[in-house]
Amino acid sequence: MGFFDNLFPGRGDPFGAGDSASGSIDLTRRRPTVSLTKQGAATGNLRVNLSWRMRSPDLEYRSRSAGTLLRHPMKLFKPDEFQAHTQGVANVDLDLGCLYELTDGSKGVVQPLGDLLGEINEPPYVKLSGDDRLGSGSGETIHVNLDHRDEIKRLLFFVYIYDETPAFDRTDAKVTLYPSNGPRIEIELDEDAPQARSCAVFKVENVKGELTVRREVRFVYGFQSELDRLYGWGMQWGRGFKSRT
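That's the Tellurium resistance protein terA sequence above. Prediction below.
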């Protein structure tokens, strides 16, 4: 193993198979798909979790300063300059949702809006466990019952900002899939789209009996109806609200 292999673990894997030490697969632009069937995870419960935290101005400043330290290492021994904040960082309420299409042609959505929480042991076999409005450590989770995979044609998981100013650029958001077998699958919402209100994160498709996960990370400036149009779901949409409890 060469010197640079020690600096960049996993660099020697041309297929980006993931971090074996942490048991994870990162889906990226260069490596956007993974087969649940081939890794023996096309049965049981697939858990999909959205987690995020707000990025403070201090963290943004330190991130920008990291490149400066690489070019001027002596600055490491100088005290940080005081950074005045002109505005605070508001909390952003990110929601996790799932558009589904079953093999019998039925379509719908599972999401916090309208309390459309789904069902796990009957159609659509997709269930939202709850609504996290503050970006806590547990985040939001959707469960998919893959024991009924033959009844599932396709799923589109998406994230949207509920009734707040667009701020995807100020959140560190990540969607993690926990299959019944094999490593977890991680997808970072790391594209630069500060004005976007929604993001199609990934698809699960059943093609000739093989379940595959495909990274999308496609930001849009509208909401569910625009995602519907882009991916051809063909449903009718209206204004939805959350319960206040």
